[in-house]
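Researcher: Sequence recovery benchmark, item below. Answer with residues only.
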C-alpha cells in the first residue's frame, strides 16, 4: 500500500485530513509546526490516534510520518 493510500484511508475512516490531525496534535501539545513536540515520543502520538480515532498501528505511523514531514 502506498503512503498516499494510507493517508486517503485515514481521511475516509476519521473524516480528518492529515493536516487536520496534525493541527489537533499541535493543539494537544503532541506536535509543533516542525514535527513532534520536544520530549514527545512517537508512541504518545500513536496511542492518541488509536484511542481517539480508532486507527491501527500502521495508519497511526503514517500520521506520525506526515507530522515529521514525509510527503510521498
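Model:
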Amino acid at each position: 500500500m502506498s503512503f498516499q493510500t494510507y493517508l486517503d484511508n485515514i481521511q475516509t475512516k476519521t473524516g480528518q485530513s492529515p493536516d487536520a490531525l496534525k493541527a489537533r496534535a499541535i493543539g494537544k501539545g503532541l506536535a509543533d509546526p516542525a514535527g513532534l513536540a520536544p520530549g514527545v515520543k512517537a508512541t504518545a502520538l500513536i496511542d492518541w490516534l488509536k484511542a481517539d480515532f480508532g486507527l491501527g498501528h500502521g495508519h497511526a505511523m503514517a500520521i506520525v510520518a506526515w507530522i515529521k514531514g514525509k510527503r510521498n
